[in-house]
Amino acid sequence: MQRLVNENGITEEMVVIREARPDECESVMELWKLVGSGPSVTDTVEHLQELTGRNRHLLLVAENSGRIVGTILDGWDFCRAHLYRLAVHPEHRHRGIARALVREI
Predict the structure, then answer these.
(1) Could you tell me the pTM of the whole model?
(2) Alpha carbon distance 105, 87 (integer Å)
């Protein structure tokens, strides 16, 4: 599940929307701290590594030049979908990255 995004506002850079890997969980947590979206007491690197190892499709990242610049976390209870941690690095906002993450999840 890899997709190149180059649309409405993303003209200077190519962003790849893809499933997160377990080795990227520390970077994901750092992004969440930077944007003020946690982590909560239940968010740990170990928990995210377990999630990405078991259900990779639930945590997507937006990557630009090898750097994680956005995330979205999905939850599903067989009746409803829940979106968590939609986060975009402040230097990469207003370029359609959040919209692309939501569309991909």
Answers:
(1) 0.80
(2) 13
